[in-house]
């Protein structure tokens, strides 16, 4: 009557439950949905397992931790970078009101983190100051390649940042060398 869980790599191979391996979360069981509502033809099933769309780790005791959404994880040079971890660090800066991290196309690494942030009122925070805030908190290669400051981030009805709009606007930012300062998102 429980739910089975496993994590798999991009090729569908099962990963170890060691608490550090990170992969796509698949679940199965009598309580698991057959698919996502309104997605005809895409039932979310992979060999009887439901693909949740989450990236997770599972430890040896079976405890699972979701670390990101698979569509939001940044795949840089064959390695995965968590957008959520980057956003949490940015939001811990006292002059940041809101932040979102997306994958921006990169010539060498395919994708690199791009941070889009809203300053708190009265702040003159620079990209360099915000990027320095990451020192010692994550691996250096996880640090965003650039910061774009905006007046506001696009939000959905539930208050969630609409990353699809940010990707549409900024996915080529690192290729085009756009200015750091933007007035809209």
Q: Can you describe what's shown?
A:
The model is unreliable at about 180-185 (pLDDT under 50). The chain starts with a strand and ends in a 9-residue tail after the last helix. The chain folds into 2 domains: about 5-70, Roll (Luciferase, domain 3); about 75-175, 2-Layer Sandwich (GMP Synthetase, Chain A, domain 3). It has helices at about 85-90, 125-130, 165-170, 175, and strands at about 5-10, 25-30, 45, 50-60, 65-70, 75, 80, 95-105, 110-120, 145-150. The protein contains 4 helices and 10 strands. The strands form 3 sheets. Strands 1, 2, 3, 4 and 5 form a 5-stranded antiparallel beta sheet that branches. Helix content is about 15%, strand content about 30%. It is an alpha+beta fold and about 180 residues long.
Mean pLDDT comes to: 90
Low-confidence stretches: 179-185
Enter the CATH topology name of the largest domain: GMP Synthetase, Chain A, domain 3
Task: Work out the strand percent.
Answer: 25-35%
- Any idea what the CATH superfamily of the largest domain is called? ANL, C-terminal domain
Measured distance between first and last alpha carbons: 46 Å
- Computed over alpha carbons, the radius of gyration is 18 Å
Can you summarize the main beta sheet? 5 strands, antiparallel
The string of secondary-structure elements, in order, is: EEEEEEEHEEHEHH
CATH class of the largest domain: Alpha Beta
What is the CATH architecture assignment of the largest domain?
2-Layer Sandwich
The dominant shape is globular
User: In DSSP terms, counting alpha (H) and pi (I) runs of 4 or more, how many helices?
Assistant: 4
Number of β-strand runs: 10
Portion of residues in helices? 10-25%
> What is the number of independent domains?
2
Helix-strand makeup class: alpha+beta
């Amino acid at each position: 009557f429980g739910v089975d869980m496993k994590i798999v790599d991009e090729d569908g191979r099962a990963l170890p439950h060691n608490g550090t391996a990170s992969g796509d979360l698949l679940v199965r069981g009598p309580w698991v949905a057959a698919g996502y509502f309104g997605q005809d033809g895409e039932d979310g099933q992979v060999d009887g397992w439901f693909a949740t769309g989450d990236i997770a780790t599972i430890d040896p005791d079976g405890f699972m931790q979701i670390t990101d959404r698979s569509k939001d994880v940044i795949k840089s040079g064959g390695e995965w970078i968590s957008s959520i971890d980057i956003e949490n660090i940015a939001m811990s800066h006292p002059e940041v009101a809101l932040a979102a991290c997306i994958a921006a196309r990169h010539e060498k690494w395919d994708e690199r983190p791009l941070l889009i942030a809203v300053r708190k009122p009265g702040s003159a925070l620079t990209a360099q100051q915000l990027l320095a805030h990451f020192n010692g908190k994550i691996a250096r290669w996880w640090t965003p390649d650039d910061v774009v400051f905006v007046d506001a981030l696009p939000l959905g009805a539930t208050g969630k940042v609409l990353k699809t709009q940010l990707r549409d606007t900024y996915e080529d930012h690192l290729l085009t060398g756009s200015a750091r300062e933007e007035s809209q998102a």
